[in-house]
Amino acid sequence: MSKRAFPLSNIPESELLPTARARELARAGRYEEAAGIIAVLLRDRFGLKVRQVRINADIYSLNSLNGTFETDSQALFFKFHQEENESTMAGEYYRAELLADAGLPVDRPLHASTEPGQQILVYRRRHERRFADVVRELDFSEDVRAMEPVLAAERRLNEQLIRVYLRTLHPVSAAQCAADPIHRLFHERLVDPARPGELGGRFAQFYRDRVFAFPGETLNWQDLSRLRIEVNGIAYRDTLGDLFESAFQQLEPPRFAGSGGVTAHGDAHNANVWYEQGGRLVMFDPAFAGLHVPALLAEVKTTFHNVFAHPLWLYDPPAATARFTANARRNGDLLQIETDWRPGLVRLELLALKRDIVWRPLLRELAARRLMLANWRQMLRLALFLCPTLVMNLRGGATTHSPVSSVIGFAVAVMIGSEPVSGGDAVSDFLDAIDPS
User: What is the model's pTM?
Assistant: First the structure.
């Protein structure tokens, strides 16, 4: 875990709700102040006598905060996920019980607060590692034997997931789609509540009217958004501007009405999964779990964050900058990006397991029950595209991204969001392989 500091937002600290205030302070490196807020929150919400609150400076906590504390009788772990405009959001949060009832392996919290702005989970403190840390150790390895227990654990979890998805698959209505919390990870991050009909939200905060300094090229958003992008010689159809506009239109919750929904965690990437002794994987932090999660979205976060966010570039930009090279060059209406970044062997093996065990049978069943959306491939790509672009600001210098990791990030975003002009790549091959037609 490494320390990193971000500037505080423009919102006055006094106007922030407790979890938002704690996260802002922690992001700015003011850990003791953040810990004080958490201590008061834990005392007020659960009546706990809290001491020794410690905030983890966690590279995986891009939109969340976690740490440890003690009471007179227990050593405990807390985590919360914090979104903008949380006070206006309705619905249940942190529903571990519905996942357990469905047969999914999930760590149940000892205490849970679902009050907007004060949402927090408390677990017994574990000594197991998160699966993200286990897999990261293999990122630059070619040792297939060392990967075997990790991949076996992943296989077992995927087998559990697909059994639950196929058993709970059902048609979802527009009302069910609108109420499902999974959309807070996708479409709602593009929305400004004051102007819900316009593309805004994190897109506007992160990118609109900004300047992007890449190695070899500096561009303003107006120009960058209109350029077609070529990555390592492969040209892509859609510009960044096109992809954001399409995501805003196509990923509106009502667009999923009439498709299939499942019971799912929705955000069970490997940083939200414990690796127990014996290789059992257990999910936690079900901030966006639901009974009516659109099937096309159920495994998007895991597919992106467990595969294409690695190695290094999303979660550890300084390390990525030291290890990889990248360059950008404008050539007319084309931005040509060259980089030696690639997903490693273990990431491709994780993708193959997700492809064969979960995605392929799930889409086949959607098609068989006539619950498949005609533009499923575009919608899946757009949801994948929003994972890197909205989980944190990819602009170099805005947070921890350098020009090198920034241009790698945008290259990955276009690769997963857009079809190639001709030929194929790893993402189009993956989509071809799960196509049920």
Answer: 0.91
Tokens 């979802």, residue located: 172
Q: Give the dihedral of Cα atoms 311, 281, 113, 35; nearest 10 deg.
A: -50
CATH architecture of 13-101+109-125: 2-Layer Sandwich (3.30)
Task: Give, as one character, the DSSP assignment of residue 357.
Answer: I
Instruction: Note the pLDDT tens digit of each residue in 211-239.
Output: 999 999 999 999 999 999 999 999 999 99
How many residues are recorded in the chain? Answer: 437
Residue 130 vs residues 122, 127, 331, 343: alpha-carbon distances, Å:
16, 9, 44, 20
**Triad 159, 162, 164: Cα angle to 5°:** 110
Residue spans of alpha helices (H) in 169-272:
174-179, 201-206, 221-224, 240-250
- Asked if residues 38 and 55 have their Cβ atoms less than 8 Å apart, the reply is yes
Task: Please state the domain extents for the chain.
Answer: 13-101+109-125, 130-434
Phi, psi of 272 (to 5 degrees): -110, 25
Quickly state the pLDDT bin for 18 (edges 50, 70, 90). Answer: confident
Dihedral angle at the C-alpha atoms of 286, 382, 407, 142, nearest 10 degrees? 60
Query: What distance in Å separates the CA atoms of residue 202 and residue 186, rounded to the nearest whole number?
Result: 10
Beta-strand pair 111-113/170-171: unpaired
